[in-house]
């Protein structure tokens, strides 16, 4: 991380030290997520999966109850709460690592943090009505992600004049909005939103110049695991994207990414530890 960056996040009483790259394990409690939809839809399977990811080396578990894959339909508030809250309540005491809630809805943010989540991961960068105010009051870290459009339409025809500059400008504006709402810089992370309203070329440009976003001085999280970019470039189905997913994670960490959001925790952790060892040798 760049000098002066926040290194320890207080995630609801569970610290997350970003002095070295960290792994966020993905736990989708949905029937339709692009990679593992349906695999952990029952609370029992979800809890088991979270515990396994921690054993494999996850530093934080990201729980989501609404798919944000391209073309995904929205989920009702009641259904999203039904999916995630029992799992968070079960895990809060059994996990030593923080829990993140992946949601756009302020009502879910509030219920999840009350249930034990310690970080809000919002693909809509707290733009939904009431989200800024709720996040500010909850006093936990927030991750602001860039997305062009919405999950339903974002891959229809994504277009930019300068994808890197526009993503950075958007995130800067959202940081300013957070500061205005009373969310301190010490609680803010940034995510360029790989695959969210971007073509393959846009994603590659963002990754090639990720250091420009890192240079803004806030921790950067990346989610590249099993993304369609890999399938389009290498013609690989989702269940054969482990090696390229790890490769992309290493490229991101080399440029200063603080958190890697992934499905394959153990393999990704081993790879980024080697990357860090080389990068930091001086």
Overview of the structural elements:
This protein is of the alpha/beta class and 282 residues long. The chain has ten helices and ten strands. Helix 5 (163-181) links the parallel strand 7 and strand 8. It is globular and about 40 Å long. The model has no long low-confidence stretch (mean pLDDT 92).
Keywords, please?
single chain; 282 residues; alpha/beta; TIM Barrel; eight-stranded parallel β-sheet; 10 strands; 42% helix
Summarize the topology.
Elements: E1 8-11, E2 14-17, E3 22-28, H1 43-56, E4 60-64, H2 77-94, E5 99-102, H3 106-115, E6 119-122, H4 131-138, E7 142-145, H5 163-181, E8 188-191, H6 200-208, H7 210-214, E9 221-223, H8 228-234, H9 242-254, E10 259-262, H10 265-279
Parallel strand pairs: 3-4, 3-10, 4-5, 5-6, 6-7, 7-8, 9-10
Antiparallel strand pairs: 1-2
Helix pairs in contact: 1-2, 2-3, 3-4, 9-10
CATH homologous superfamily descriptor: Dihydropteroate synthase-like
Low-confidence stretches: none
What is the percent of helical residues? 40-55%
Radius of gyration computed on alpha carbons: 17 Å
Through-space gap between termini: 14 Å
CATH class: Alpha Beta
Shape: globular
Q: What number of domains?
A: 1
Count the DSSP helices: 10
In the CATH hierarchy, what is the architecture at level 2?
Answer: Alpha-Beta Barrel
What name is given to the CATH topology? TIM Barrel
Number of strands: 10
